[in-house]
Amino acid sequence: MKWKYGFKLLSRICLILFYLIAFLTLFTTMEHITRIWFSGSSFEKSFGVYEPIFTYFDLSFNKQPELFNNSSFLILSFVSTTAFCSLLLLFLWFLQKLLMNIYKENLFLYENVSLISKLGYTILFLGTLSTYTEEQLALKVLDLLKITNAQISLSTGAYLDTIIGGVVLLLIASALKFAVSAVEENKQTI
C-alpha cells in the first residue's frame, strides 16, 4: 500500500517537471527563432553570446567562431533542441499519466498499453532525431579545433541507444497487452 502513494508522488513530480521544461522550451525556442530570423536585433543581443549545449562534452572558445552565426548551424541546433525538448515533454506527460493510472487502478489496463507504446515511439523517433542532430552539431564544432599533437574522434552511434530503447518499450507494451487480455479474461470468468 505504501507503493501506491509513491506512484502518486512520482506522477506529481513528473507534472511539475513537465511545466518547468515547457517554460524552458518556450525560452529556448524564442532564442533560436530570434537568432535565425531576427539576427542583429536588440532582442537577439539580449540573449548574449550563443553557445550551443552538448550532452557529452563542454567546449568553450576564447573567440566565438563564425560557425555559430551560420544559419544552417543555427537551424540544425534549433531542430536538435526542439526534438530534445519535445522528447522530454512527451516522456514526462506519458509517464505522469501512466503513474496516475497505476495509482488509481493498476498496471494492467489497455490505456497503459497505449501509453507505453507512445513512450516507445516517442523515444524511437524524437530521441533518435535529437541524438543524431546533436552528433552532427558536435562534429561540425570539433572540426573547428586545431589540435596538433592529438586526434579527437567522436563516436557517432549514440542514436542507436534510443532506437533500441524505443523498440524495447514497444516490446514491453506488446507483452503487457497480452497480460491485460489475460487479466480481463480472468475477470470475466470469475
Description of the structure:
With 190 residues, the protein is mostly helical. 73% of the residues lie in helices and 0% in strands. The chain is built from 5 helices and no strands. The chain has helices at residues 2-37, 42-45, 71-104, 110-142, 159-189. Helix 4 runs antiparallel to helix 5. The longest helix is centred in the N-terminal third of the chain and has 36 residues, at 2-37. The protein starts with a helix and ends with a helix. The model has no long low-confidence stretch (mean pLDDT 89).
Weakly predicted, low-confidence segments: none
Largest sheet: none
What is the residue-mean pLDDT, rounded to a whole number?
89
Order of helices and strands: HHHHH
- Number of helices, counting only DSSP H or I runs of 4 residues or more: 5
Quaternary structure of the protein: single chain
How do the helices and strands line up, and which of them pair or pack?
Blueprint: H1 2-37, H2 42-45, H3 71-104, H4 110-142, H5 159-189
Helix pairs in contact: 1-3, 3-4, 4-5
Question: Which descriptors would you attach to this protein?
Answer:
single chain; 190 residues; mainly alpha; 5 helices; elongated
Short description:
Helix content is 73%, strand content 0%.
